[in-house]
Write a structure and sequence with these properties.
This protein is of the alpha+beta class and 390 residues long. The strands form 4 sheets. The chain has a 5-stranded mixed sheet, with helices on both faces. Strands 3-2-1-4 form a 4-stranded antiparallel sheet, sandwiched between helices.
Length: 390
């Protein structure tokens, strides 16, 4: 029997991008699975709400009975998958693509999902998967003790172990004290030798990290190990790697697994992103007074339609209805805003559509979970790349 090759995520995305159907039967689902979303299965409530909104939208499309039944079966399969808490991957997000007409049901774990949402279209909506891969980039993790070091490369979809590093070290045991005129090694000399060996080992580990970082673009670095070893390594980092350090973790190189490494790397990356979010909100507040930022849904959607937005900020707890102008494709809050821009088409989840539009324009999207950080944001806001007329 010949083993079937498992497609890489890029091959999977290429296959999804080529899919086309006559009606809106390809269901694209994104589920946020952050730690606070898993509490009392809040993610499942958000998913059911998104499914109900999609069903209300489908009611107005005039689908025939067979098409509606196929979409309904796909939605039920997605809800069944999400309801199996034990079977969900330990990742902050999940993308699911389903289409009964094509025999399609693909599940892709993601390092983050902006907003839980479900859509049905003639094509698969893969922009957030591509965006997650591009934004996540590549993380390097070094797990070291005073003798050995293991290196891991963490990507948006997995974790791969790289060749390690082993250094010579003095064998543990009691030092030999001085005995009158007899030769021997004193305690001070013994411990100085251990310190020198540690420094040589740290220098070798950092040299290896520089080689690995120089091969391809790097988005972050994590140092891990028992005791104070990660801090010892951090002292040897050159300026370029020091700037990319996301944090340190306590891991044992003799026991750690790629799955555990990836979990710790994602946790430290999220903490690092939270700090960046607070800085971004401070930039938003100062930019509103000078015209380099806007706050509120109406102003933000207007800026997004003009291509002004550099970073879109969305509160994690915001949702609501809206409209898309048929002729211009612009997202608006009320029907009246579509005057001279075509028929207003109802949009069940305006936030999800705004995120999708931002990703299409290659705009950075930041979903604010921290209550303190999101307090100044009126639903959605944006930092602008250029100022425009009111």
């Amino acid at each position: 029997m010949t083993a079937t090759a498992v497609p890489t995520w890029s091959e999977l995305l290429d296959r999804l991008a080529e899919l086309r159907v006559e009606g809106p039967e390809i269901v694209s689902c994104y589920i946020r699975l952050e730690p606070h979303d898993r509490i009392r299965r809040r993610y499942l409530l958000a998913l059911k709400t998104a499914v109900r909104r999609l069903e209300q939208t489908l009611d107005g499309l005039g689908l025939d009975r067979e098409e509606r039944l196929r979409i309904q079966r796909d939605l039920e399969r997605i809800l069944e998958l999400a309801g199996d808490t034990a079977g969900l991957p330990h990742t902050p997000g999940l993308a699911v693509f389903a289409c009964s007409a094509l025999g399609l049901f693909e599940v892709i774990p993601l390092p983050r999902v902006h907003h839980t949402r479900v859509s049905a279209d003639r094509v698969a909506h893969t922009r957030e998967v591509v965006s997650a891969a591009e934004e996540f980039g590549r993380l390097l993790v070094a797990v070291a003790d005073r003798v050995r070091a293991r290196f891991f490369e963490v990507s948006a979809f997995g974790c791969e172990e790289l060749p390690g590093e082993v250094s010579e070290a003095t064998r543990g045991g009691k030092f030999h004290s001085d005995r009158a005129d007899s030769p021997g090694t004193g305690e001070r000399t013994f411990h100085h030798r251990i310190r020198k060996e540690l420094h040589r080992h740290c220098a070798a580990v950092v040299s290896r990290l520089q080689d690995l970082a120089g091969s391809r673009p790097l988005r972050g670095l994590v140092l891990a190990g028992p005791g104070t070893m990660p801090r010892e390594l951090a002292r040897f980092l050159p300026g370029r790697l020091q700037d990319q350090l996301l944090g340190i973790a306590r891991l044992n190189p003799t026991e750690v697994t790629p799955a555990r490494v990836r979990t710790e790397a994602l946790r430290l990356r999220v903490e690092h992103e939270r700090a960046k979010e607070r800085a971004l909100v401070a930039e938003l507040e100062s930019g509103i007074a000078t015209g380099w930022a806007v706050n509120g849904a109406r102003e933000t959607l207007r800026a997004l339609s003009r291509g002004q937005v550099r970073t879109l900020l969305v509160r994690a707890d915001v949702s609501g209805w809206g409209f898309r102008c048929e002729a211009s494709g612009r997202l608006v809050l009320s029907r009246a805003e579509c005057r001279n821009e075509g028929r207003p088409i109802p949009v069940a989840d305006l936030v999800s559509e705004a995120i999708e539009e931002a990703l299409r324009q290659h705009v950075a999207v930041v979903v604010l979970d921290d209550p303190e950080a999101r307090a100044p944001v009126d639903g959605v806001a944006a930092v602008l790349r250029f100022r425009g007329r009111g």
